[in-house]
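hey can u check if this looks right to u? its 98 residues, i copy pasted from the old doc so theres a chance i mangled smth
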Amino acid sequence: METSQTIASWGDATFGQASLRALAIRAREELDKLIEAIEAGEDKGTIALEAADVTILLHRLCGKLGIELSESVNEKMVINRGRGLVKSGDGTGQLKPS
């Protein structure tokens, strides 16, 4: 099983050192490709691989910081489950306005 650290190490060895900003920008570009795949009606396998590209870049970013993305997701879900959230009406949500 891959970790943020193994993915970050692979990325550095394959592509060279990248700044956090460069990784975030590249992740945004990959997110755009994911959206395009969804809008084009691509099959679920293609969509999953595009989502994986975004996730790989986020793992690289977290690995550079010495943190594990999956642990951060678990921590954030504990916070989200205890928050006051409101539905946006499209299957997503946001914090209740203060």
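Residues 44-64 form the longest helix (21 residues).
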